[in-house]
Amino acid sequence: MKNLFSVIILVIAVSISCSKDDSVTTIPSGSTGGVIDPGSDPNFTIVANSDSGMDSFNRKVVVFGVDVYAASGVEDSKLLYAANIMAQYLDNNEDGTADNQAVVDKMVENRAFLFMWKTEADFPSNPPSDRVGQDLGNDETHPSFVPDGRTGTFDAGLEEVWHIITNAGYERLYPNVFGTQTGSAMSNAMDIARGGQFTTIPNPYPANAWYSYDDQTCDYGCQAGEYIYWTMSSILGAQENRLGDIQHEWKLNTRTLVQSTDPAAYALLTDPQYKFPTVLPDGTYKR
Fold first, then answer.
1. Quick check: is 215 in a domain?
2. pLDDT tens for residues 227-257?
3. Is the C or the N end of the chain the one with fewer CB within 10 Å?
4. CA angle, 271 as apex, 91 and 278 as ends, to 5°?
């Protein structure tokens, strides 16, 4: 997972629903690539992008008011797949309405966006200073991943889409509960999971730690963001049969293990008042 970049928010919340526009859209003047194929997704349309500060991306899909951008080298199928993953996380029962509208409103207030890249040259050189973003690589997005059968390469879309939802949504809407600073309820649970409250990476982690992320570039807030991903993804089943790949970083790869070993985090992420997803997205939103 690459570090999130986030900034001071200067905008007012607006709630926008998913939309479908079947027209073919041409790329605006100054862009490259010719005609934009809108795709054949029943819920989302690929449209040309001309948003300020996002010149690296020639097209986008809008999901509940949240922009999902793509550079020219990104496959249309993967752009639409990421949009479907986001929709399923936000509208987990797929009834066409966000499960926690306040989270979506907070994301829109923060002008949250996901950007998909093919090479590092695609990263925006001067992103807008009033937006919160998260990146996702084309080549790390694997729609064929099946967690229960342990088939296919792990899909980073399940992680990076979740990061922008928590960073721009849950963490900012409920800072005392899910904030990444010390003292939030989720951070307190993380301190237990790491075997103590560490502002730098311990070497080694305490023997009783089940969360031992060791990226030296990942500060306390970054660690907290990773922690909510590991716990939620394990509860939803994304880490089934992956213990051998992830145990150097995270040992509770199933819902049962999270519930029995990390009851504080489990209680927060299954508390019905927050309306977290209960089903792992599969990239096929069916509203």
1. yes
2. 999 999 999 999 999 999 999 999 999 999 9
3. C
4. 40
